[in-house]
Each structure stands twice: as C-alpha cells, then as structure tokens.
Design goal:
single chain, alpha+beta, 7 helices, binds adenosine-5'-triphosphate, binds magnesium ion, metal-binding, cytoplasm, nucleotide metabolism
Length: 140
C-alpha cells in the first residue's frame, strides 16, 4: 500500500513534561515519518476552529482551555496506512482503556490530557493538515 498522511498534535500535557522527543520516538518506531513539524501556541480561535466538531459536547470549553494551556507540536506524519497506524500507536482516548505499549497508556494523564491527537479519517487528515500547514512546509 502506498504511503499516506495523517495529522498529529503533541498536546500541552506532553510538551509541559518535556515529552516531545519521547512521543515522537514512539510515532517513528511505529513506522511513521515526521514530514512537517512545528511547535506553536494555539490561539483560542484556532483551538475552537480545530475542535468545532465537538462544539456541542459538554467538555468543549474545558478542552479548548486545555489545548491553549501551553505549547503544542503540530506534525504531519507519513507512512503506510498512516491514519490507522497512528490511531493504533496512540491508544484509546481514555488512557484507562488504552492498550499496553501505546502512547496514551504510557504517557496520558487523563481522558482530556491524553498527550496526543490524531486524525480519525483520511478526509479529516487532509482538512487538519491544511488547517496548520502550507504544502511547501511539508517535506517528505
Ligand atoms: P483526538 O481527536 O484528540 O485525537 P480522540 O479522537 O481519541 O482524540 P475525541 O472523541 O475526538 O477523541 O475527543 C477529542 C478530545 O476531547 C480527546 O482527545 C480528549 O482530549 C477530549 N475528550 C474526549 N472525551 C472527553 C471527556 N469525556 N471529557 C473530557 N475531555 C474529553
Ligand atoms: Mg478525535
């Protein structure tokens, strides 16, 4: 199967604990290649826009507050079946339910402060990549 792309965020709970490298190593060990990466402080508007699909969920306000509570690292990952591959190494949303050896089982603090985001479909990956990156910032 040809290489595809997905979008990843190393969330503020992980950057705060200096885990950018440790999380990235788990992504790389899972067969994903970082083809774009930048450390940014998201604005409230960016976080609200990015998580707009969750607008009606009861945790939306807290989620936005959390995502702007510190820097994040936004990344484009490339690999065979990248979306599913990334979701597998991330583990379940709630770290209590995540499999051993996954990023969330290893590092997440809670269902909210769960260390990483990953696109859940190829279509959403394209939208999310375009939200943060110009095509000339992605170098495979
Ligand atoms: P992500 O989209 O960040 O990769 P996900 O797809 O596993 O995570 P979603 O259901 O899309 O999970 O939820 C988005 C994010 O909202 C979660 O990663 C988590 O940070 C937060 N979240 C989800 N459910 C809850 C909850 N019940 N309480 C608090 N925060 C939550
Ligand atoms: Mg999601």
């Amino acid at each position: 199967m040809a290489a595809t792309r997905t979008f990843s965020i190393i969330k503020p709970d992980a950057t705060r604990r200096n885990l950018t490298g440790a999380v990235t190593k788990m992504l790389e060990d899972a067969g994903l290649r970082v083809v774009a990466s930048k450390r940014i402080q998201m604005t409230r508007e960016q976080a609200e826009g990015f998580y707009a699909v969750h607008k009606e969920r009861p945790f939306f306000g807290e989620l936005v507050d959390f995502m702007i509570s510190g820097p994040v690292v936004v990344q484009v990952l490339e690999g065979e079946d990248a979306v599913a591959r990334n979701r597998k190494v991330m583990g379940a949303t709630n770290p209590a339910d995540a499999d051993e050896g996954t990023i969330r089982k290893t590092y997440a603090e809670s269902i909210e402060a769960n260390s990483v985001h990953g696109s859940d479909s190829e279509e959403n990956a394209k939208t999310e990549i375009a939200f943060f990156f110009d095509e000339d910032e992605i170098v495979g």
